[in-house]
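Lecture 7 notes: from sequence to structure.

We start with a single chain of 173 residues. Read the sequence below before looking at the structure.
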Amino acid sequence: MINRVTKFGLFSLIIILLQILLFNNIQFSGYVNPYVYIIIILLMPADIQAWVVLLVAFATGLIVDFSSGTPGMHASATLAAGFSRHHVLRLIAPREGYEPGSELSMTNYGIYWFLLYTSIIVLIHHTILFFIEVFRFDGFFRTVLRILLSTLFTAGFVLIAEFYRKKRKQSPR
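Now the structure, written as tokens:
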């Protein structure tokens, strides 16, 4: 248990640093902004307590907010994603349910399940984040386009990261 928590904490720290130092500086023509730190919420075990998910989501968003100078935007969006996570998991649960303590990964539940799960959570996160950012319905369709393109890019990065993790787990050490 402690080893798993330590590994996840280190993984989270690396992802947050990558978000702050690399991904916050990437923007493609004003439409694509990768917010890959959401992977922290995505990969938490299915049977983890809801209050822990909310606490981790809020802390993650707050750290990104402090480093980006965007007070509350990322914390709000990440908290909404963390809150909706339980409902999304229940909605798309496999027939046999989730194995206690198992990671929510492509390896455990398949690529189609993982893609659906990732897309829904990232779409919720990005919708909240971008509408808080503009805080008006002026340019509604531009904001929707930003949400969709950023969701595709972020979900794509999460899938690439998950393929890499899957490959590392399968390779002999």
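The chain has seven helices and no strands. Keep this in mind for problem set 3.
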